[in-house]
Amino acid sequence: MQPNSEFLTPDECIEVDKALLTSKDKFSARIAIYALRSLKQIAQKSGQAIADLHPTQIEDWIYQDKSLQGGIDNEFKKFFSQLVIASINPLTQIAQANQTNIESLTISQVVSWFEVKAKEALKSQR
Predict the structure, then answer these.
(1) Which of 4, 7, 47, 95 gets the highest tally of CB atoms within 10 A of its CB?
(2) Is 75 a domain residue?
(3) What are the Cα distances from residue 124, in Å, to 3, 116, 119, 120?
(4) 102 touches 39 (CB < 8 A)
C-alpha cells in the first residue's frame, strides 16, 4: 500500500458523504478510515499485526505523514495521534461485527458500522 498524499482519498470522501450520518458521526468515520489506512501501512512496514502496534509507533507515523505537514503544529499532531490511537477501539468492534480482523476491513464496512451505531443511538433517544 502506497502512502497517500491526502487525508482521505476522493473515493473515501464520497463513501462517507453519501452515508446517512450526522456531522459528528461523519467526522468519526473519517478519522476511523484515516486510522485504518495508516494502521495498515504501519503494520505492513513494521511486520506486525495492527493489534500489536505500540502507540509510539502510531504517533511517529502521524508526525511523518505528508498529508498532515502543511501548516500543522506539533500540538495538533499530538492530538490527532491520540484520535488515531483511540480509533483502534471502534475498528476492533467493526472487525468483530464483521467476523474478521482489522487488517481485512474495508471502507464500506467502516461506514456501515457507523451508520448502524447512529441508528441505534437515534432509537435509544426516543
Answers:
(1) 95
(2) yes
(3) 40, 12, 9, 6
(4) yes
Residue 3 in domain: no
Q: What are phi and psi of 87, to 5 degrees?
A: -70, -15
Per-residue pLDDT of the chain (126 residues; tens, 9 = 90+): 333 346 788 899 899 999 989 999 999 999 999 899 989 989 998 999 998 999 999 998 888 877 666 667 778 888 888 988 999 999 999 999 999 999 999 999 999 999 999 888 888 887
In a domain, 15, yes or no: no
Asked, for residue 10, whether it belongs to a domain, the answer is no
Number of domains in the chain: 1
Angle, helix 10-17 to helix 107-125, in steps of 10 degrees? 20
pTM of the model: 0.82
